[in-house]
Structure formats: structure tokens, C-alpha cells
Amino acid sequence: MNFDFSEEQKLLQQTAKEFLEENSSLVHVREIFEADAGYSKALWKGAAELGWLGVSIPEEYGGAGFGYLEAAMIAGEIGAYLAPIPFSSTVYLAAEAIKRAGDDAQKTKYLTGIASGDLVGTMATTEKVGSLTEKSINATFDGSKLSGTKLPVCDGDEADFAIVLAKEGSGLSLVVVDLDAAGVERKKLQSLDPTRAQAQLTFNDASATRLGAAGEGWDLAQDVLTRAAVLMAFEQLGCADRAFQITFDFMMNRYAFGRPIASFQSLKHRMADLYADREVARSNCYWAAWALENDHEELREAAASAKISASDALDHTTVEMIQMHGGVGYTWEYDCHLFYRRGKVLAHTLGTTDEWREKLVTKLIEDAA
Amino acid sequence: MDFNDSPEEAAYRAKVREWLDANATLRDPDAPRANMLDEAEGDYVQKAKDWQLTKHEAGWACLRWPKEFGGQEATAMESVIFNQEEGRYEVPPSIYGIGHGMLGPTIMAHGTDDQKKRFLPNMVKGDEVWCQLFSEPDAGSDLAGLKTSAVKDGDDWIINGQKIWTTGAQFCKWGMLVARTDPNAVKHAGLTYFIVDMEAEGVDIRPIKQMSGASGFNEVFFSDVRVPDANRLDAVGNGWRVAITTLMNERSSIGGSLGGGVGIKDLVKLAQGVEINDKPAIEDGGVRRKIADFAVRRSGLKYTGQRSLSALSQGATPGPEASIGKLVAAIMGLEMGEFGMELQGAGGILTSDEAGADPAWQHTYMAMPGLRHAGGTDEILRNIIAERVLGMPGEPRMDKEKPFKDIPSGTAR
């Protein structure tokens, strides 16, 4: 057996790490944060040139034609370096939705545009504060025009197109809409992490085309969210790994009572627990990556498990990161809050941890029957 | 990325299955199974010895050991495959884990040729069972604080003291004992390692009744017990180094199952069968979230084991991730026991099924505090992760420089 990533995949990860070390420093992340600039256009261009945006897009649409394991390797480094780019919205969600359900014209237009770096995409499901359910959808699609409001939409202020969940007749459908079209209004929303900016999108008879069959929107959206959750879990795990490492380095070099604070058992035991949390998450992530790559029937369970444990590990790590840095951990100047903010945003982006717990337990009950 | 056997592994597995099919019965995978010796019943020692002899005669015993000592020089992965397959059959609980896993390799590393010839083949064959005599009432996590004394008398050593938590002492022929031979030396320098005949004059074995009511361990008292110098392992004063070899072989149960006898499916079924607020508990949001969190930890442990196995299969050493297994499993087991009891309301404290209670959860609740101590406490495991895996500094020590006799230890009264 070889329940691990291949040497080629690990090499890709190393390349991604080196590129981001150079091009997504925390200084650069801060520039985008403080300028409220949405995302780093330079970094996005670099990611396109490296072929990351089309990593799992077939070659016939200009992609690299890799599988999901390669995408997972890149996602982990995107998370580690807090890369301020709309990678998850475009690659995990928009590209995946088009790949799963798009017709040839949609694939040609959007997948080719994503792979080349010309198009930023996103997915818009929720319409208000509270959890996402079929009944919570009020946006409507009449076969050609879309109306309604979506919020919060990650990268919605900057994206070129969005995959939108809307009512069509008595069911729900997924539609794709160009966001510079007539009848689309965008409003930026203030949020925890301006480098993963949120927006409100309002549609008034905006032109849209359906993605997949009418009435299949809910199942399709869940399928896309499940698949995106696997890659997001890797992004979260990468983020947790780096937050942990920064904290560890700080503790080894910070002295109190004549000793490095890393020598205090009360802190060591908490670091050991954070390590255990991340290993539980890492193992679930590996399982989910395997299930995604093989389109295995365990995917729903594995994806939810990866997402829940990666969210928990990241939450615990960033909370402890601030605590273990002492008072400076709570300053604007130190980077702890960048991880704390990003961590929480990632945990909420594809549905909250409790929503994923509900999905997992639903599957476990089905299996126990 | 896959879970598949390589062609060689598949062929080996087929060979193992063929032999097991011919020599044992497949067990019902859903039937409860004793996973600790204190749950085993009847003449399990004789049954275990018979099974070991059967394996030995067919060439399936101590697979990884050198052939000259009765092993097969199999790979780590082959040994894992045999254990996986053996676990699918009705076989007696093993009484050889400590001997074959820890003490045999210690003799191979530190023993004389005579010691290896005398002890190892019989250990493989299984007619002589071995136990480990390390912990003492005042030396558990702080093992090097042990006080059992060994004093030279001609060609013998005279042993006096008390050992504790000795699994299987009542049926063992031999024990591996660390004793203090020089109380004037510094703590770790004054220790020596011995092989002790458990049937010798002056050895007194008493079972310890655990808080669960079961007795899986013993106290062993030594009163002027004579051990020939020929049964000293390695040099006088080298006992700590030898003990480290033993402990390094204390493998986490790679590929094995962890945690009590209760699983996620059991929890779902329990929650479907009891009510909260006049509705099935399984419909309660809080219950659902807790089940999900247990499931996530359980699968995380399962696939952590798969990552370690994968490393073995690739010919590498499993990574440090294996060190989290028992820490996470024991805490989760305790929490699952508590939760199963909570779901049963007032009946959650009943310990038999006569009134409709499901006492598996109650038994888990009573067993798990022991698992949190066994094989390294939660606290020691966290120290190991922090210091050896992560590389954080050790504690400042007050027991390193002075002679052992001047170091306070035990419980002040």
C-alpha cells in the first residue's frame, strides 16, 4: 500500500512553498489587508503562470490535467502563506461546478478562462445570516434571467462570474452569471479578513445560463461543496501547520524565569495536544483526498471528517497562537491575528463546522441502518 | 495514493489466510471480543500456549526475529499482515506481547551468546512466558527512581524490593527486572538489568484488584531472592541503557484497533433507541454534533494507523504521528463511555442489562481511566510528543547530579 502523496506531488508542494515564500510574505498579505485591495493581482498572475489555476482542469480546456492530489498539495501551501488570492472560490468551487455540470460551451468559456488566469469565479449560495437550507433560497431563475440577493459571497466584489443557487419552478437549479452584466449590483461587505473579501450580490433580471439540469441545483451544489471541502481542509491544515510553527519558534526564543518558555510543561502539553489535533486532521485529509481522487463512495463521510477536524485543529491552533505569544499576540503589529482571522474565515466559507457535523452524522445514520 | 497490497504483500496475505483457514475458525466480526487480559476467561493461558506452539511448528511465530532464534526474518509489513489476518479468527488473547515485542529484542541486543541460546528459542515456542518488572510504587513515570536493590553475594545477586503493574506475573516463568546496584551513584548510573526466575524462592506474586473489579496486573515482592550472575543482562551499572532498549521496542499497536469495545455504530444505535424530550435522542442537535466529533477522531486515528502502515509497506520507519494513538484513543474512549451513559439517563449507572440498560458504556467508563495510565500516562505521552517529536526543551531537573540516596522520592507523610 502507499497511502501517501507521490514524490512528484511532494515536489510540486515544495515548488509552491518556495514560490509563496517569495511572493506571499506576511508583509505582502498585510499590504493587501491594509489597502483593502481585495486580492493580490501580482500573485494571481504568478499562480496562473505556474499552472495552479488549471491544476485539475483537463488539458483540452487549457488546464494542467492533473488530479485532485496535486490540487491538495497547492491548497496546503496557499493556506500556509495566507495567500491573498481568490484561489478557493475560483478553483475549488467555480471550476469544479463547471467541470461537474457545464455543457461544452460553458466549459470552453469558463474553464479556459480560469486556466489562463483571465477569469475569477465564485459560488453564491447563502442569502442571509443563518445556515444554508433548501428552504432558505429565494433567488429565482426563469430559464434565462436571475433575480435575488446573495450574501456573503467570498470574492464576489472582484469575481468575473458566479455560480448561483436559485429557485426554478418548484425546484432549485445552479446557474452561471457574468457579474459585469446588466442587472448585477455588487456591494462590498466588511468582514474579519479583507484578504478574503466578502460581498453582497443583487440580481435584477440578470442574464444567466443554467448549469446542469433544472431542479438538480441542490444536489449539485452539495456535491461541489463536498469536493471543495476536501481541498479547503488541506488549505486549513496548511494554515494550522504554519501558525503552529511560528508559535513554536517564538516559544523557543522567548525567555521568562530564566528559561525558554518552550520548556514549561503547561505549554508543552498544550503544544502536544495541538500536534495531536493536526495529526487527526491530517489523516482525515489524506482519507478525503484518496476518496476524492477515486470518486469513492466514502467521499461524503471523508470530506466532512476532513473539514470538521481541519477546522477544529485550525481554530485551536490560532487561539493558542495568540495566548502563547503573550500580550504581543494581541497587537496589530504581530501576525497572530492574521492567522486567527483567516482561520475563522476558512472555517465558515463552505458552511460552518456544525453544518458539516450535521452532514456527517446524517451519513453515519444512513450507514448504520 | 492507495490502500492496495503490493503483489508480494497480496501473495503473502493469501498464504497466511490459507494456513489460518486450515488451523482456526473465522470469528463473527460483530461479536464482542475481550481486548484486555483481564476480560479473558477460562484456561486462556493453556489455550494461548497451544496456539503459540501450533504457530511455531508451522513457521508463523515471531516472524520478524532472526532464524537462528526461531524467527522467520520476515519484513515488518509481513508481520503486520499476519496480525491483521490472525485478528479475523477465533484465537486466544496473546500472552506473549511483552516477551516477543520487548524483552526478546532486548536480549538480542544486550545478551551473551549463552543467554540468547538459553532463552530466545523457548520464548518463541511459547512454553516459557515472560513479564516485565520495571515499575515500583515510587517509580512509575519516574522509572529511574526505582529502589528494588540487588546486592552481590559470591556468584549470586540478592534481590529485595517490590515491583508493580506486572501483567501476567502469575503465569510467567521469567521476568526482566531492573534493580539498583549502587545507591551512592547518581540516579541513572546505579541500575543493573537481570533475568529473574519467577518460580524462585522469595518471589511473592499478588494480584492487584483494579477499581473496575478486574485483576489484570500484579504486585511482585522480592525477599532475598537469589539470581545467578549469569542471568545479569549487560554490565553492572548499565541497566538504564538496557531498559531504554526495552522501552524503545514498546510499539504502539500499528494497524491494530484502539479504544474500548464500543464504536460509532453502537453510539448511533443507542441514540436511536433512547429518547430526549419525548423524541429519539438521535434527532437532538447536541447529540448529533457529539457523535460527529467522536466519528472524526475515530477515523482520524484509523487513518493515522494507515499512514504508519503505509510507511512500513514502503520500507520506511513509521513517522512520529503514531505517538498520538493511545493519547487520543484513551481520552476519547472515556468521553464516549460518559456520553453513552448520559444518553441512558438515570439508567446510565446500571451495570447489567437486566433492566434494559446497555452496560457496555458503563464498563468503558470504568476501564478507560486505566488505559490513560497504561503504557505511559497521558502526561508522559505529552512530554514525549513535546520533547522528542517537536523538540521542545526538557524540564530543569533536580535529580541529575546528587547520589540517588540523597534524592527525595515517593509520597511524603
Question: What structural keywords apply?
Answer:
heterodimer, A: 369 residues, alpha+beta, Butyryl-Coa Dehydrogenase, subunit A, domain 1, Butyryl-CoA Dehydrogenase, subunit A, domain 2, Butyryl-CoA Dehydrogenase, subunit A, domain 3, B: 413 residues, four-stranded mixed β-sheet, 11 helices, 14% strand
Strand count of chain A: 9
CATH architecture of the largest domain in chain B: Beta Barrel
Order of SSEs of chain B, N→C? HHHHHEEEEEEEEHHEEHHHH
Task: Please tell me the total number of domains of chain B.
Answer: 3
> What is the typical, i.e. mean, pLDDT of chain B?
91
CATH topology of the largest domain in chain A: Butyryl-CoA Dehydrogenase, subunit A, domain 3
Chain-averaged pLDDT of chain A:
97
**Distance between the amino and carboxyl termini of chain B:** 59 Å
Helix fraction of chain A by DSSP (H/I, runs of at least 4): 40-55%
Give the helix/strand class of chain A: alpha+beta
CATH homologous group name of the largest domain in chain B: Butyryl-CoA Dehydrogenase, subunit A, domain 2
Largest interface, chains and sizes: A-B, 50 and 53 residues
Order of helices and strands of chain A: HHHHHHEEEEEEEHEEHHHH
Q: Helix tally of chain B?
A: 11
Q: What does the overall shape of chain A look like?
A: globular
Number of strands of chain B: 10
